[in-house]
Design goal:
The structure holds two protein chains of two kinds.
Chain A (H helix, E strand, L loop, with lengths): L1 E8 L5 H4 L10 H5 L10 H4 L5 E4 L11 H8 L4 E4 L4 H10 L2 E4 L1 H5 L6 E5 L4 E4 L4 E4 L5 H9 L2 H10 L6
Parallel strand pairs in A: 1-2, 2-3, 3-4
Antiparallel strand pairs in A: 1-5, 5-6, 6-7
Chain B lengths: L2 H9 L10 E4 L3 E5 L3 H9 L12 E4 L9 H17 L2 E2 L8 H7 L8 E4 L13 E4 L2 H10 L2 E4 L3 E7 L8 H12 L8 E5 L1 H4 L3 H9 L8 E3 L4 H7 L20 E6 L6 E3 L7 E3 L10 E4 L1 H4 L2 H11 L9 E4 L4 H9 L2 H7 L3 E2 L20 E4 L15 E4 L2 H10 L10
Parallel strand pairs in B: 2-3, 2-5, 3-4, 5-6, 8-9, 8-11, 9-10, 14-15, 14-17, 15-16, 17-18
Antiparallel strand pairs in B: 1-7, 12-13
Helix pairs in contact in B: 2-5, 6-8, 11-13, 11-14
The chains are: A alpha/beta, B alpha/beta.
Chain lengths: ~170, ~425
């Protein structure tokens, strides 16, 4: 069970907002985390606490393919991102590195900045503790659920390689 | 099947695929750059493998912060260089390089019928050749470098049909900005965009690259054109291996079809801070600019430089305005020199740079201060994209960017005497 306070954003939060390109000359997660969201929320890195949750409207993570974006969010301490929809490269990247994403337009509409949420990842159930409301997120396709269950794409691939799948 | 589905089915060894299918695809080329490759290499190492699956299908191009803008960037490129030496993969050193999406088609490293994956969102550019090309993250690329396979979900196809005849000064950039303006930055989310109609039939290869390049700006997974005579003429002298072309499928296999007559559209300009914030250039005539950038993976090809040079020739860049011209590759640079374009730009008061992504992503070579405004032939105008979060970027075609540099405000080329 994940529990955290909400940082709420609008639609089309792009990867330049999540981690500006001027910081992409390094790839150290802790360094990236220091600048996470800084161009749209200057003191995010200072306020965020381990376990907190980002809630945003449509097309979260649009723009570049930089994996630095979900890495920065995860390293900043965010436990999950809930959005009405996600841009596809960001979605893949987050799953691959083990950052939890949940798609639930209803939860987004009914949640405000500072609310406390509880998320049960296994069932995809989101509870807004502040407002005492419960939402269901869209389930993952079974193939992606396998990657998540393995602990990310590297572990999933390791497992397949060790099984001698016709990968190499 | 649609064009995208035909390519994907051939590369996953199935007779047919349908939107929503999860498939394992064998890519023909796997790309990464100086920002994304260091993470990909780190993730590849975690598998404990000695060798990549096939060194001839892996290319790394340092282009974003190259020539290295600072010590941290130099350290990143060093990681690529050492990995390339160790593995024997394809690598372009500063001096032979270009912006990846200009360079790979130009060098014949991506071809029609290919599946190409790249750790760069603008990998979709190669769709212009009739390839299925899409951007991914570093970890996806790392696992593909190891296994030669990548999982994909087959996307639905959205067809865009352009009718009529393009007016003067209107090209591929205007068509794609118009399209994104109509459907929004998530109007093609997860979908494969397919560009067709008589306007595309008559569009140059460079114009098609520009269109496919910005498919991602509508949320698209890919942006494809059919491999017609124009594409074949481009590919034949460059290809060093076999390639295949496929016909478009029927319209009823597409999830959606948009159809527009573009005979009367003006050059398009996208205002801050979204590429969908698009209006005709005439709507922006009172917008003063401090900088004009002509280049990038979107508009750094020969046709783009020719167009900008034709507009700026005999004029001067306005006082206190910077115009920065960046060829997309060393080959484009050479051709621009041979055709006298470099001289035209320098005589007009432009800075002419070595190839780099540079200012497009706020890297280097033309960063904006607070309160400054640029017109650029690049692809994104997000907050802080080219520098200060208090700066602004307007997106336009190369002719409009050149005319605006001369006028010191956003201008149509027709306004120059």
């Amino acid at each position: 069970m994940l529990t955290g306070k909400v940082f709420k954003y609008g639609a089309n939060v792009d990867t330049d907002a999540i981690i500006p390109a001027r910081y992409l000359n390094v790839s150290e997660p802790s360094e990236l985390a220091r600048h996470c969201m800084e161009d749209i929320d200057l003191d995010f890195a200072g306020r965020v606490k381990a376990g907190d949750i980002i809630v945003a409207e449509t097309n979260f993570g649009c723009g570049s393919s930089r994996e630095h974006a979900p890495i920065a969010i995860k390293a900043a301490g965010i436990s999950a991102v809930i959005a009405s929809s996600f841009a596809r490269i960001f979605f893949r990247n987050a799953i691959n590195i083990g950052l939890a994403l949940l798609e639930s337009p209803e939860a987004v509409v009914e949640t405000d900045e500072g609310d406390t949420l509880q998320i049960e990842l296994e069932t995809g159930v989101i509870k807004n503790v502040t407002k005492d409301k419960v939402f269901k997120s869209k389930p993952y396709p079974s193939f992606m659920a396998q990657i998540i269950a393995s602990g990310g794409l590297v572990e999933y691939t390791k497992c397949k390689l060790s099984q001698g799948a016709d990968l190499r | 099947m649609t064009l995208a589905e035909k390519i994907l089915s051939a590369r996953c060894g199935r007779d047919s695929v349908a939107p929503g299918d999860f498939i394992n695809v064998r890519p023909d080329m796997i790309l990464s750059n100086d920002i994304t490759a260091p993470i990909a290499i780190k993730e590849f190492r975690k598998l404990g493998l000695k060798k990549v699956f096939d060194a001839s299908k892996i290319v790394m191009i340092p282009d974003h912060f190259v020539p290295n803008k600072d010590i941290a960037s130099a350290e990143q490129v060093k990681i690529l260089r050492e990995f390339a030496l160790e593995q024997g993969i394809i690598f372009f050193e500063c001096g032979q390089m270009g912006i990846e999406h200009v360079l790979l088609p130009e060098q014949g490293l991506v071809l029609p019928g290919d599946v190409v994956i790249g750790a760069d969102s603008h990998t979709c550019t190669y769709g212009a050749l009739g390839a299925f090309a899409t951007g991914m993250g570093s970890t996806d690329i790392a696992m593909a470098m190891a296994t030669g396979e990548i999982w994909m979900k087959v996307p639905p196809t959205i067809r865009f049909i352009y009718h009529g005849q393009l007016p003067k000064w209107v090209g591929g950039k205007d068509l794609i900005l118009y399209t994104i303006g109509q459907i929004g930055v998530d109007g093609a989310l997860y979908a494969s965009m397919e560009f067709t109609g008589e306007v595309i039939d008559n569009l140059s290869m460079d114009g098609r690259f520009t269109m496919a390049n910005m498919a991602i700006e509508a949320g698209g997974k890919a942006g494809l054109c059919c491999t017609d005579d124009t594409a074949v003429k481009y590919v034949v002298p460059r290809a060093k291996r076999n390639w295949v072309s496929y016909e478009l499928g029927s319209a009823d296999e597409c999830a959606m079809v948009y159809e527009w007559d573009v005979t009367h559209i003006e050059p398009q300009v996208a205002a801050p801070h979204l590429p969908s914030n698009t209006k005709p250039v005439s709507a922006f005539r009172d917008v003063a600019i401090h900088q004009s950038v002509i280049g990038s993976c979107t508009n750094g090809r020969m046709e783009d430089l020719r167009l900008a040079a034709a507009v700026i020739k005999g004029h001067k860049v306005a006082p206190f305005v910077r115009c920065i011209v960046i060829p997309g590759s060393q080959q484009v640079y050479l051709e621009a020199m041979r055709e006298g374009l470099v001289e035209t730009f320098i005589n007009a008061g432009c800075a002419f740079s070595t190839p780099t992504c540079g200012p497009c992503l706020g890297g280097h070579m033309g960063i904006l201060a607070a309160g400054e405004r640029a017109i650029a032939t690049t692809n994104r105008n997000f907050v802080g994209r080219m520098g200060s979060t208090m700066s602004e970027v307007y997106l336009a075609n190369p002719a409009v960017a050149a005319a605006s540099a001369v006028m010191g405000r956003i201008a149509s080329p027709d306004e120059l005497a």
